[in-house]
TrEMBL record:
This is Phosphatase NudJ. The keyword Magnesium applies. The lineage of its organism: Bacteria, Pseudomonadati, Pseudomonadota, Betaproteobacteria, Burkholderiales. Its EC number is 3.6.1.-. The gene is nudJ. It comes from Herbaspirillum hiltneri N3. Belongs to the Nudix hydrolase family. NudJ subfamily. Monomer. The keyword Cytoplasm does not apply.
Length: 169
């Protein structure tokens, strides 16, 4: 029986303030990289829950998603991980930046910084993904879809609660 191919689902928060975007600098397998606050969808999460969690973990800020900027796919063949071939399916969200909390940043996150679109474009070789600049450009072009396009059936989050010992009858 052959293995079923599955993309790795990620979320990203596109946060703009006065012409600058909140970025994170993180230590990756291939060096210091720039990205939006972003990460993987966890089992039992809705996409909007995942982006709220990732923004908090990576930037120490609350984030309220207000729109879907886009859905993106990219492929990475990692030279640092023995040629591991991963396809990513990224959901990028625009939203409102909330309270900053006094808490440590997620493991591997070196710092947060605010960058203009041109500053982000000037260092493409340091981007964690080829989607980093594309998401910013789509945001700046006004691309938005309502969050109502995303639907998460209760069975998704119920399975996480059942696994945590909370059953629904």
């Amino acid at each position: 029986m052959s293995e079923v191919w599955k993309p790795s689902v990620t979320v990203a928060a596109i946060i703009e303030r006065e012409g600058r975007f909140l970025m994170i600098e993180e230590q990756a397998d291939d060096g210091l990289r720039l990205n939006q606050p972003a990460g993987h969808l966890d089992q039992g999460e809705a996409l909007t829950q995942a982006v709220v969690r990732e923004a908090l973990e990576e930037s120490a800020h609350d984030f309220e998603p207000t729109a879907l900027v886009g859905m993106y796919m990219s492929r990475n063949v990692s030279s640092s991980r023995g040629g591991a071939d991963t396809t990513y399916l990224r959901f990028a969200f625009a939203g409102k930046l909330g309270t900053q909390h006094d808490r440590p940043l997620d493991e591997g996150i070196v710092r947060t910084l605010w960058m203009t679109r041109d500053e982000i474009a000037a260092c493409r070789e340091r981007h964690r993904s080829p989607l980093v600049l594309r998401c910013v450009d789509d945001y700046l072009s006004g691309q938005r879809a309502p969050l109502s396009l995303l639907y998460t059936d209760a069975s998704v989050t119920a399975s996480a609660e059942i696994g945590a010992g909370v059953a629904h009858g």
